[in-house]
């Protein structure tokens, strides 16, 4: 059993060749992008509708290794419900952008473990 991942982000890097948005989409993750002139400045994650992680944390390697950031973990049902409601509004607002077919090359083909059936 897997997990459902949905992501909303700025569309700034959507058209950049080999961007992380394309990489996520090529793995089946639905990414909706804000293509408006305004900044998508929300920075939160909802986990299993039970936990919210929110703060200044930018979800980048620099945020982890260099920047001074904060991330608050919240397990309060009322707060999680409000974040979930906000995410639902944003999800419905930003239209799903489909991607054209991607030609698999060694650089963009995901590696997968294949198990053989030996008897």
Automatic annotation (TrEMBL):
Transmembrane segments: none annotated. Keywords: Hydrolase, Lipid degradation, Lipid metabolism. One of its GO terms (molecular function) is RNA endonuclease activity producing 5'-phosphomonoesters, hydrolytic mechanism. The keyword Cell division does not apply. SMART domains: PLDc. Residues 100-111 have a biased composition (Polar residues). PROSITE patterns: PLD. The lineage of its organism: Eukaryota, Metazoa, Spiralia, Lophotrochozoa, Mollusca. Residues 100-119 are annotated as: Disordered. Gene3D superfamilies: Endonuclease Chain A. Belongs to the phospholipase D family. MitoPLD/Zucchini subfamily. This is Mitochondrial cardiolipin hydrolase. The keyword Lipoprotein does not apply. Residues 36-63 form the PLD phosphodiesterase domain. One of its GO terms (biological process) is lipid catabolic process. It comes from the Eukaryota.
């Amino acid at each position: 059993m897997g997990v459902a991942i949905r992501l909303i982000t700025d569309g700034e890097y959507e058209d950049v060749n080999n961007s992380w948005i394309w990489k996520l989409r090529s793995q089946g993750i639905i990414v909706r992008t804000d293509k408006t002139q305004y900044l998508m400045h929300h920075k939160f994650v909802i986990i299993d509708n039970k936990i919210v992680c929110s703060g200044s944390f930018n979800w980048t390697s620099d945020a982890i290794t260099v920047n001074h950031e904060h991330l608050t973990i919240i397990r309060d049902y009322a707060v999680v419900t409000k974040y979930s409601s906000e995410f639902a509004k944003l999800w419905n607002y930003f239209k799903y952008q489909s991607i054209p077919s991607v030609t698999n090359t060694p650089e963009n083909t995901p590696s997968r473990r294949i198990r053989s059936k030996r008897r």
